[in-house]
Amino acid sequence: MSPRIRRDPQWWAGVGLAVAVSLTAVFAAEWVGKSLLGFDKSPISAIMMAIVIGMIVANTLSLPPSMLGGIRFCARTILRIGIILLGIRLSLVGTGQFTLVALPFVVLAIAIGLTAVGLIGRSMGLSLQLSGLIAVGTSICGVTAIVATAPLIKAKETEVSYAAACITVFGLGAMFLYPILAHALFSGRPELAGLFLGTSIHETAQVAGAGLMYETHYHAPRALDIATVTKLVRNLCMVAVIPLVGVLYSSDHKSHLAEGRVNWRSVIPWFILGFALMSAVRTIGDAGDLAFGVFDPTRWEQIVTLTRDAAEWCLLIAMAAVGLTSLVAEMRHIGLRPFALGLFAAALIGGVSLAAIALLADRLIAVVGL
Questions:
Q1: What is the pLDDT of residues 4-19, one digit of tens each?
Q2: Beta bridge partners of 291
Q3: Mean pLDDT across the stretch 228-235?
Q4: Sequence ranges of the domains in the chain
């Protein structure tokens, strides 16, 4: 964080607003569930409330542009810190098992998404670049993949904006609807629900939000764990897939790797390494009678619990920031054809994921030994 940012009160006001929305969401979820609906334990997710409240604030108040830096910091950096800390929930063995199960579904979804969405987009009269951006954003990693791919295929700024808007609209819809659908289809099988959420929802933030909603509503933390690992596998695939997209969707059919147009720092998701490191910490800590030769089992469990709680608070703040950056007015400019392609892409990836899970998941889980 630069000294200029540290001295910018508006930047900190953006961070404070995201934190305030997340705290409000916690109390609102409890009040609606217990006081208004009369449940002993609120069935309302604080994550869902944070996004809704954030969207209401963003679309009813005119937030100063100078606050957006702090809000985006929460939506991006705080989100990634939360994902890193989530690694404490899994040992390296568990992470490796989940990765082996997730990889075939991820590869299948990416392959079908990149080919089918691109072909349909071209048949609808959309530019090769816009079709490619929607394909890569839906198949791999949402807006991150779009931003990393855009300079490689020489996409226009308007095409980047349209593709990002499509990903935001359908990703937010999936984040609210897919946990319900996953429970209806895979009740009692949180590992399958997690696979579905991780392979079918676009953005990392949206997957984390959907996983937390599923955990809260259906008391299934395993679904969040598998959804997170599955999404991280998808993110890692950017390293191999984005150069390929540069060949498939560039108007002159030439790769621009030699021109240095790929921002490899944005392509390589550094927070995946952090997640793996935290899993290693959990594995080593659980191995002996004293964690790291210092902490007794009770104290080590307290550390794990505090780290897990910190991860969930980071994700909650990030979801509030996602709501605060979701402007309905900007989404209205998508246009019918890009919107239709985005809807088709989201439905295709979701359908492919469901079909693959129904046909293959049980066999792979048995082989891996989950």
A1: 555 678 899 999 999 9
A2: 295
A3: 89
A4: 3-368
Q: Which residue has the tokens 């995946």?
A: 272
Rg (CA), the chain: 20
Helix (H, G, I), strand (E, B) or coil at 1: coil
Give the count of alpha carbons within 13 A of 352, CB side only: 25
Structure tokens that stand for 203 in this block: 């953005």
User: What tokens appear for 252 in the block?
Assistant: 């002159």
Eight-state DSSP code of residue 252: T
Both tokens of 251, joined, read 């108007």
Nearest in space to 318 (alpha carbons), one of 231, 199, 175, 204:
204
| Contact assessment for residue 88 and residue 308, using Cβ atoms and an 8 Å cutoff | yes
CA dist 159 → 126, 129, 153, 248, 297 (Å): 10, 7, 11, 17, 54
Residues in the chain: 370
* Residue 259 per-residue DSSP state: G
DSSP codes of every residue in 119-154:
HHHHHTT--HHHHHHHHHIIIIIHHHHHHHHTTTTT
Half-sphere exposure of 82 (CA within 13 A, CB side): 26
Looking at residue 293, the DSSP 8-state letter turns out to be T
Structure tokens at 342: 């985005």
Dihedral angle, C-alpha 343, 136, 133, 358, nearest 10 ° = -10
User: How many CB atoms sit inside 10 A of residue 5's CB?
Assistant: 12
Look at residue 105 and tell me whether its pLDDT is greater than 70: yes
For residue 102, the SS3 value is helix
Q: Token digits for 165? A: 């808007």
The CB density around residue 17, as the number of other CB atoms within 10 Å, is 22
The set of residues, in sequence order, having a beta carbon less than 8 Å from that of 37 and lying 6+ positions away, is 43, 44
Tell me if 220 sits within 8 A of 214, measured CB to CB. Answer: yes
Encode pLDDT of 169-180 as tens digits. 888 889 889 999
Measured distance CA(82)–CA(211) in Å, rounded? 13
